[in-house]
Amino acid sequence: MDLSNMSLGDLRNLQEQIKQEMKKREHQEVQKAREQILAIAQSVGMPLKDLISTSGRGAAKTANPGSVAVRYRNPDNASQQWTGRGRQPKWVKEWVEGGNSLDKLRV
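Below the sequence we write its predicted structure tokens.
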């Protein structure tokens, strides 16, 4: 197809047709992938949710698998918590600088 001989209007129409065709094909590809995934789940006799679960079948599930347990808590304000990862919060620094042991904050 020689685009150099097409008018600007024809090129815009072609562009719109391409967009619509791409949407249609993307939808078809997604539908095809879903069907393949469901077929795999059925072939191994597993519910789809178990197949795609990262924790595996029968594993204990946590409320938020990406969260880290709190290891330290401010005794003066229980809402101030720290996992022990990353920079120390201001209240932890102040606690340690005050001559207190970090172990006293451990949950």
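The chain has a mean pLDDT of 86.
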